[in-house]
Specification:
Number of strands of chain A: 8
Oligomer: heterodimer
Shape of chain B: globular
Number of domains of chain B: 2
CATH topology of chain A: Aconitase, domain 4
Strand content of chain A: 15-25%
CATH topology of the largest domain in chain B: Aconitase, domain 3
Largest sheet of chain B: 5 strands, parallel
Number of helices of chain A: 8
Number of strands of chain B: 18
Order of helices and strands of chain A: EEHHEHEHEHEEEHHH
Helix content of chain B: 25-40%
Structural class of chain B: alpha/beta
CATH architecture of the largest domain in chain B: 2-Layer Sandwich
């Protein structure tokens, strides 16, 4: 379905510097019984966020005093495992519009972009530095321009490009719905079928 | 580039068009749907007021969130019942064939597609499930997609994706005794890591792969997603062609012969280039088991849990966190580790060959009284075959019961949940935190290893503790056959 176009962000980042965060951690299977896309944010990171009685775990980042942020920052291979798009829905529903990580699983990357979430790969040489800057100053601003394909860590000399295809960039900036796009291709698809 | 891999040949033949950024509008031959990742896609179609573009190319099954006992009774939990009935309604409204609960062809989507001949060599196959990679065993380009993409396929029979790079994993030689396709998968993932295949489509090749059965090939391709690969495939050969010959939906007679001509052309050209290549010797691959919280954290079953600190004293935070979650300590031997549950099933190891292997080992023995075992066939057809072969009787005499088909404890959406803190040896595909239930602790292993553990109540080196019916094996020390009594279990 269509989503809100995205382009520029000026936000702190919530730090979850863990490698291989799988989609079962983002949202466990027992919460996948709903047949709509809404309301998954309350179950985001459930296993880490709540204890077994459902009380908030005070040590987990989302339960600490943290600035309002639209950016989540994680380690290597974020979103590995299941293809469940509920992972992207829960992140978006919680309020994250950008995930910065040292790499993403392929299916998650597509799911994110299909829901108006921008996945940004953090170059290896900057990862540790950015993590420690945020640890020292949780309000550390990160400036993002999808239009300019650029990330800047405010008040620092760290800046790096957003690697994204021109088509995906355009889709995210315009909120393009790919289902609509493909429906418009019906004639070409039917021609392809006839030629096989 | 004129030389192509099998993957290139199939992908290129299905490209409807290519966008300027090299994304492909890729035509999909076969689309499978299930109850968990499809309802929001159908909602989208209704909101757009569009129909399914090619309904005859999509098949549905209820599998992820179904009970594995008493499937003839109404599902008691309202949300699960609603999810199953929503699938039925959606398939009826949009003219899609559905094998619903109780149907003779119902089962796990990646078990039924292959066994019905709905997946064939050369196809593009997608499903809103990451283990769609399973179907690559037939020489198909098969991969998991998200729900938005499920809607794209329903609405246009196409997905929009960038073409992954080619990766080759070649394994030559003969696998040692008791080393199965599952062990091969865990071994390769332990070497490449869970992100080692990201951005790639894998071709598995080599003599060790050639000699695998279709079931083994499906197990291996199934796990290719666990190394982060988009999918994995194997060149179709006589094993493949014989397997599909008489399947329900496979082409018959003249159509079969015509198809065979095309399938035989699905080979990787000798000088085709791979972006990455890995070579392994089958003889080097041991029986594997996971100790940690992702499938890459696997070691030989004879090995010890890795140290948290390396030789320089630096702490590996991933190892530390995994040990803490799993309740294991550095240097602890895996063999002898107690288990509470044993799960045989899933799209990875829920096929008839897996049940046969399990039954062969437990025949004439008894399940450990300390172990709760769930034996879940992957489909109704697997269940019926097991009954026809008397596997159900063998299992029953050994203290095991066959359940009804479904994904079950692989992802624990239904009531088959491993309780907090309990250990489960599992033939499934993921050992993530809480995967088999909140706080559950999973050891991924083969059906062979799972059978041994279910009898002894401990992780057991196959052949080392109990004699198998195979009399050619050396006789083990009889004292080692009985698990050491644990004082805490004496009532």
């Amino acid at each position: 379905m269509s989503f809100k176009p995205i382009n520029k962000f000026n936000s702190p980042a919530i730090l979850l510097p863990v490698d291989n965060i799988d989609t079962d951690q983002i949202i466990p299977a027992r919460f996948l019984k709903a047949t709509t896309r809404e309301g998954f944010g309350e179950h985001l990171f459930t296993g880490w966020r709540y204890d077994k009685n459902g009380n908030p775990n005070p040590d987990f980042i989302l339960n600490k005093e943290i600035p309002k942020a639209e950016i989540l920052l994680a380690g290597h291979n974020f979103g590995c495992g299941s293809s469940r798009e509920h992972a992207a829905w829960s992140l978006h529903d919680y309020g994250f519009k950008v995930v910065m990580a040292r790499g993403f699983a392929d299916i998650f990357r597509n799911n994110a972009m299909n829901n108006g979430i921008l996945p940004i790969d953090i170059p290896n040489q900057y990862y540790s530095k950015i993590v420690s800057m945020i640890q020292e100053n949780p309000d550390q601003r990160i400036l993002i321009s999808l239009e300019c394909e650029l990330v800047e860590i405010a008040n620092s000399n760290i800046a790096f490009p957003i690697v994204i295809s021109s088509f995906r960039k355009q889709c995210l900036m315009e909120g393009t719905d790919l289902v609509d796009y493909l429906i418009q291709q019906h004639e070409i698809i039917a021609t392809f079928e006839n030629k096989r | 580039m004129s030389s192509k891999t099998i993957f290139d040949k199939i992908w290129d033949a299905h490209e409807v068009s290519t966008l300027e950024d090299r994304s492909s509008v890729l035509y999909i031959d076969r689309h499978y749907i299930h109850e968990v990742t499809s309802p929001q896609a159908f909602d989208g179609l209704r909101q757009r007021e569009v129909s399914v573009f090619r309904p005859e190319r999509t098949f549905g099954t209820a599998d992820h969130n179904v009970p594995t006992l008493n499937q003839h009774l109404p599902i008691s939990e309202p949300a699960s019942a609603a999810q199953i009935s929503t699938l039925s309604k959606n398939c009826e409204d949009f003219g899609i064939s559905l094998f619903e609960l109780g149907h003779e062809w119902n089962g796990i989507v990646h078990v039924i597609g292959p066994e019905l001949g709905l997946t064939l060599p050369g196809m593009t196959v997608v499903c809103g499930d990451s283990h769609t990679s399973t179907h690559g065993a037939f020489g198909a380009v098969a991969f998991g997609i998200g729900t938005s993409e499920v809607e794209m396929v329903l609405a246009s029979q196409c997905v929009l994706q960038r073409k992954p790079k080619n990766m080759k994993i070649e394994i030559n030689g003969q696998l040692p005794k008791n080393v199965t396709a599952k062990d091969v998968a865990l071994y390769v993932i332990s070497k490449l890591g869970t992100g080692g295949g990201t951005g790639h489509f894998v071709e598995f090749c080599g003599s060790a792969i050639r000699s695998m059965s279709m079931e083994g090939r499906m197990t291996l391709c199934n796990m290719s997603i666990e190394m982060g690969a988009r999918g994995g495939l194997i060149q179709p050969d006589e094993t493949t062609f014989e397997y599909v010959r008489d399947l329900k939906f496979a082409p018959k007679e003249e159509d079969y012969n015509n198809s065979l001509e095309k399938w035989k052309m699905l080979t990787t050209d000798p000088d085709a280039e791979f972006h990455d290549e890995y070579f392994f010797k089958a003889e080097d691959i041991p029986v594997m088991i996971t100790w940690g919280t992702n499938p890459g954290l696997a070691i030989p079953v004879t090995a010890n849990v890795p140290e948290v600190k390396d030789e320089n004293g630096a702490v590996d935070v991933e190892v530390q966190a995994a040990q803490e979650y799993m309740g294991l300590t550095s240097g602890q031997a895996m063999a002898g580790q107690k288990i509470d549950y044993a799960f045989l099933g899933s799209c990875t190891n829920g096929r008839i060959e897996d049940l046969r292997e399990f039954a062969r080992i437990v025949e004439g023995k008894q399940k450990s009284p300390d172990v709760i075992a769930w034996i879940v066939p992957g489909s109704q057809q697997v269940l019926k075959q097991a009954q026809a072969e008397g596997i159900d009787q063998i299992l029953e005499k050994a203290g095991f019961g066959l359940r009804e088909p479904g994904c079950s404890a692989c992802l624990a959406m239904n009531e088959d949940k491993v309780p907090e803190g309990k250990y489960c040896i599992s033939t499934s595909n993921r050992n993530f935190e809480g995967r088999q239930g909140p706080g559950s602790r999973t050891f991924l292993a083969s059906p062979v290893s799972t059978a041994y553990a279910a009898i002894t109540g401990k992780i057991t080196i196959p052949d080392s503790l109990i004699p198998t019916p195979d009399s050619r094996l050396p006789t083990p020390d009889p004292d080692s056959l009985i698990p050491n009594p644990d004082p805490s279990h004496v009532i």
